[in-house]
Design a protein that fits this description.
The chain is α/β, with parallel strands linked by helices. The chain has 21 helices and 29 strands. The model is unreliable at about 510-560 (pLDDT under 50).
Length: about 675
């Protein structure tokens, strides 16, 4: 059996995990669960980084022995990951004996190879980053990440690693293995860094007790970063258990944050080369989570507690959170979280879409067929065709770690199933005895599409998808992609009718009363059985996504009353709207409102200016797909030529929100 060994970054334990930390673990967990579904013998490892001076200080502040403090934090981290249903197989702490063995082994190997030498380090050190800094790294003499702290000037005897020696071998490795560092944007950054020349790095700290002593100089401890990187190999037996190491090393995938790409794709592989050990196959550097467009920070009050986010939707609320993190953010780009958007996506994707679909199909199966469905002679290949296309796209995306595209693909099947029900109108078929077989087949196909969607989404929403499988009469035991991840026409299905999976979040949860101005009468209920006097099948939930952005009369859209004011379709078609992907964004100097964007419109790259700077941090837009007026005459704003206009909704007194999509679309897609 193929094996797959993957890791996340290990976390400093001087504060509790926030949503940004959770984002990485959830996405990695989705990959791990997908690999298991594909039949890989999977080992998914996470852990805590404990040999940090900040941890040491924090423990003293709390009046605890460092190790006792780390024990307590381990429980905090583990309980958070449990709450989010993160299915790691191994959890390493860098204070464990197995890790000390690995670190000692690597340090000794590098020393024996002549790649570690003694020298004098003199320079800046940011205590909060726990990183040596050059003048170039500092802004006005301060670490840009910690502008309130003054970096320390240190001068001490250190041991250095000959990183410079590995410049060419690293460049060669990058050239021979394009898959080594992903996504592309990180790869390009690191290639530039390597080509710019590498300098030797300090790998020890003198006069400290909290850390692992160097095997050849017991008065120094291994520098925390050098120590931490080795966890990936020490966890699978380096320096201790040769058979285990042989079985699992090299790692297939390291999932890390983009800020630590240099450590993982330059320093770590150079260390492994020097130690004559194989390199990990792939390092994937994901983006940052922001809240309301701002970096998550305690002082800004922009920290989101992942447990609070999961608890918002009840005991199984981890699944809606996981779906949001995976589906709403391009894996590799930065992503934003707002409580409003979280509620909106919950209502749109779960309450109104998937949850409602499951309720309707199980209810119709019970109403018309006592809950039992079989295949008939009647055929309807429509959904089966969509399913085949979706499964292919899903597997391709997931194999490439594009978890957001995998989730979007599964949602295409769910959308197609809703459309299929609206088009086939089972409630009409039910009135005509001659259509009995056809009705059975329509319901069977809908149930089958739900089953398949649940299998594809199982890595993202394990608990909920298992419940959906139960309701459509399929077993969730021993799921495999090979057997369960394709369209099946076999057997009898006994469907289970039960309460709503995801009750809609009501008006009382919302702060903006304007958003509630859409009455339920405005919403055309698609697929409601128009049986006179009969109650709706699922009275608990209104039937189709009342997404305010798509409903006429939504905030910001003046009501159109007189036909004289209206334009013809020909007039409208003169306006060419297209999707564009934001490649780069920056503020226009001296302007409070304007952002300068570089966008990919499919056929070319363009520069345009958008008046959305008060609503979006530039970084939060990069990677997003927006809608632009493609054929607008160029205009110059604050000295920048703008070639097109970004569409945004501008509620009165509120901040603009750019128009976006539920699914990933290629740049240049026509919008009309
Ligand atoms: Zn710093």
């Amino acid at each position: 059996m193929n094996r797959f060994f993957m890791t996340t970054a290990i976390d400093y334990v001087n504060s509790r995990p926030h949503l940004g930390t959770a984002y990485e673990k959830v996405c990695a967990d989705v990959i791990a669960r997908y690999k298991r579904l594909r039949g890989f013998d999977t080992r998914f490892m996470m852990g805590n980084d404990e040999h940090s001076q900040n941890v040491y200080k924090k423990a003293l502040e709390e009046g605890l022995e460092p190790l006792a403090y780390c024990d307590r934090m381990e429980q905090e981290f583990r309980s958070t990951w449990r709450r989010l249903d993160v299915s790691f197989d191994d959890f390493i702490r860098t204070t464990e004996p197995r890790h000390k063995l690995g670190v000692t082994e690597v340090a000794q190997r590098l020393y024996d190879a002549g790649d570690i030498y003694e020298g004098l380090y003199e320079g800046w050190y940011c205590v909060s980053c726990e990183e040596f800094k050059t003048d170039k790294d500092l802004v006005d003499g301060k670490c840009p990440l910690h502008p309130t702290l003054t970096p320390e000037w240190i001068r001490e005897k250190n041991y250095f690693f000959r990183l410079s020696k590995y410049q060419q071998p690293l460049a060669d490795h990058f050239a021979a293995h394009p898959e080594f560092l992903q996504p592309e944007i990180r790869r390009n950054e690191m290639l530039r860094l390597i080509e710019g020349g590498l300098t030797d790095i300090s790998v020890s700290r003198a006069g400290q007790s909290w850390g692992i002593p160097l095997p050849f100089a017991a008065d120094s401890v291994v520098y925390v970063w050098f120590d931490a990187l080795i966890n990936y190999a020490s966890a699978v037996g380096l320096g201790g258990d040769a058979a285990l190491f042989e079985r699992w090393w090299p790692a297939d995938l390291h999932v890390i944050g983009k800020d630590i790409t240099r450590f993982h794709s330059v320093i770590w592989p150079a260390m492994l080369m020097a130690a004559k050990l194989p390199l990990p196959r792939t390092v994937f550097g994901h983006g940052f989570m922001t809240m309301n467009g701002q970096r998550m920070s305690k002082t800004l009050g922009t920290i989101v507690d992942p447990i609070e986010a999961a608890d918002r939707f009840g005991p199984n609320g981890h699944d809606p959170l996981r779906l949001y993190l995976v589906k709403e953010i391009i894996f590799g780009s930065d992503g934003d979280f707002t409580w409003e958007r979280y509620d909106d996506r919950y209502n749109a994707d779960l309450a109104n879409n998937l949850g409602n679909l499951v309720s309707r199909v199980t209810a119709m199966a019970h109403r018309y067929r006592q809950g039992r469905l079989v295949t008939t002679a009647a055929t309807s290949d429509r959904l089966a065709g969509v399913a085949e296309q979706v499964v292919g796209a899903y597997a391709k995306a997931m194999d490439a770690f594009a978890v957001h595209e995998g989730a979007a693909a599964a949602y295409r099947l769910i959308d197609a199933t809703n459309e299929f029900i609206a088009a086939t109108a089972p409630w009409t078929l039910a009135k005509d005895p001659a259509s009995a077989d056809r009705l059975t087949q329509v319901l069977f196909d809908a149930a089958e599409a739900i089953r398949l969607s649940a299998v594809l989404l199982e890595p993202v929403m394990p608990t909920s998808c298992r419940e959906i499988l139960r309701r459509v009469g399929a077993s969730a035991d021993g799921l495999t992609f090979e057997r369960d991840g394709c369209w099946r026409r076999d057997g009898e299905r006994v469907l289970v009718q039960d309460g709503p999976l995801w009750p809609r979040v009501g008006a009382d949860r919302r702060v903006d009363p304007k958003e509630q101005s859409v009455s339920s009468d405005d919403i055309k209920p698609e697929g409601v059985p128009p049986v006179a006097g009969a109650p709706a099948l699922v009275p608990e939930t209104p039937l189709k996504a009342p997404d305010p952005a798509t409903v006429p009369g939504a905030p910001g859209v003046p009501p159109v009353t007189a036909t004289a004011d209206r334009i013809s379709i020909d007039d409208f078609m003169k306006v060419e709207l297209r999707t564009a992907k934001v490649l780069a964004a920056e503020r226009v100097p001296k302007s409070k409102k304007l952002l300068k964007l570089q966008v990919d419109v499919g056929t070319e790259h363009r520069t345009l200016v958008a008046g959305i700077a008060d609503a979006y941090e530039p970084e939060a837009l990069v990677g997003r797909t927006v809608v632009i007026v493609f054929n607008l005459k160029p205009a110059t704003l604050m000295g920048v030529e703008s070639n097109g206009m970004v569409l945004a909704a501008s509620p009165e007194g509120g901040k603009p929100t750019v128009v976006g999509f539920d699914v990933e679309l290629p740049p240049g897609t026509r919008v009309r």
